[in-house]
UniProtKB/TrEMBL annotation:
Sorted UniProt keywords: Dioxygenase, Metal-binding, Oxidoreductase, Zinc
SUPFAM superfamilies reported for this sequence: LigB-like
Family to which the UniProt record says this protein belongs: Belongs to the DODA-type extradiol aromatic ring-opening dioxygenase family.
Alphabetized GO MF terms: ferrous iron binding; oxidoreductase activity, acting on single donors with incorporation of molecular oxygen, incorporation of two atoms of oxygen; zinc ion binding
Cofactor(s) the protein needs: Zn(2+)
Name of the molecule in the record: Extradiol ring-cleavage dioxygenase
Species of provenance: Actinoplanes awajinensis subsp. mycoplanecinus
Length: 293
């Protein structure tokens, strides 16, 4: 862990749930590194929550346990709901300030750091996979946004894996599937490809006075998506705007669902049923997260 990340983590109050998470993670056995004998890593879709995820012990434990169940990747490439940008772009290849793209939370979350090793090699790999007509641009001053660094800081708290964020240049499922297909080869070299969103994200429609209640639009959409994924019905998923129950309440805007198509495109067989690793609800929103082989 870099000195800046470690110093920032030491400022978290000892009684805070994330401080306890860090202590548990530090006590875990060494994480076995990926080798070619492991074969390609899966591609992941993660419901990433928000800074309040750092206060949810059960969810943090699920994310960290998931990461530990996989070999430790050589690098991570993540597409987040919170960077919608065309042309296709990469975050800085070197540690930089995080993007604190949220408000109304404890100031401590604006002091968190996640200074991972330089990702120059990964950037070169990604660039080679893009067609000449669609070069990828590096934003040298842009760090990771909370859709990337919040879940990764929980999954890989040592901050010792190179991380790059790739922008989401469109919400067209077919184009995102094609982008995922281009990234598929990265998995064979030990790179973890992640789409980071939220299976349901109807924040304007949450009953903030009854956060234990799961709205029907949230459970209906989640159950529909789970069924379509189990059946490998990629075309149905791609037509979610008109086919999915619970719309548009589950996704008033679609950027938290569409990273799923990068994940599916990066899979060896996009129609093969992925494995759900996390389900259930937080604040009434579906946490469903999955991995595709």
């Amino acid at each position: 862990m870099t000195s800046t990340t470690a110093a920032a983590d030491r400022r978290i109050p000892a009684q805070h749930p994330f401080a306890a998470h860090l202590r548990r993670a530090a006590a875990a056995p060494a994480h076995r590194a990926w080798t070619p004998d492991d074969g390609p890593l899966p591609s992941l879709y993660i419901s990433h929550g928000a800074p309040m995820l750092f206060e949810m012990t059960d969810w943090m434990t699920q994310l960290h346990g998931w990461a530990r169940a996989l070999p430790k990747p050589k690098a991570v490439l993540i597409v987040s709901a919170h960077w919608e940008s065309a042309p296709l772009s990469l975050s800085s290849t070197r540690p930089s300030d995080l993007v604190y793209d949220f408000g109304g939370f404890d100031p401590m979350y604006h002091r968190m750091r996640y200074d991972t090793p330089a990702a120059t090699e990964l950037a070169a790999q990604v660039a080679k996979l893009m067609p000449d007509a669609e070069p990828v641009h590096e934003h040298r001053s842009r760090g990771l946004d909370h859709g990337a660094w919040v879940p990764l800081k929980i999954m890989y708290p040592d901050a010792d894996i190179p991380v790059l964020q790739l922008s989401m240049p469109t919400h067209d499922p077919d184009r995102l599937m094609n982008l995922g297909r281009r990234l598929r080869a990265l998995r064979e070299s030990g790179v973890l490809v992640i789409g980071s969103g939220y299976m349901t994200h109807g924040l304007p429609f949450i009953d903030w006075n009854n956060l234990d209640k799961v709205p029907g639009w949230s459970s209906d959409f989640d159950n529909w998506a789970a069924d379509a994924l189990t059946r490998g019905a990629v075309d149905e998923l791609a037509d979610f705007r008109s086919r999915a129950p619970g719309m548009p309440y589950a996704h008033p805007t679609v950027e938290h669902f569409t990273p799923l198509f990068v994940t599916l495109g990066a899979a060896t067989d996009p129609a093969a049923p992925p494995v759900t690793t996390i389900d259930g609800y937080a604040l009434g929103l579906a946490k469903r997260s999955l991995q595709a082989a």
